[in-house]
Amino acid sequence: MITVKHRGNFRRAEKFMTAMKKKRYLALLNTFGAAGVDALRNATPVDTGETAASWSYEVVRTPEGYTIYWKNSHTNKGVNIAVILQYGHGTGTGGYVRGIDYINPTMQKVFRQMADEIWREVQSL
What we know:
Blueprint: H1 11-22, H2 25-43, E1 55-62, E2 65-72, E3 75-76, E4 79-80, H3 81-87, E5 88-90, E6 96-98, H4 103-124
Antiparallel strand pairs: 1-2, 3-4, 5-6
């Protein structure tokens, strides 16, 4: 015969599951989506300011969970200007304009803050 004994309760697990059901984490994702937009807006090289002003974000539910997409809608002749600022581009006269890595360093800071804050949130449940 098999006997199973247990002590304690499932209070912490129930608290965690209740918090997940209420989707409080979505507010955090929106907070960091907006923070990423602000950081990208401030870090984008400025000529006219149109590219810097064209940042947005979207939180999308996926089969694995949720994903934050940061987007820039400024295009010229079908070319996304934020991308060519980041990676560089050829010119119409045969020259080349070197890219400026402004997205990666900016988003690394946001990702660190996001990881720290989400970890604190999970630990508080």
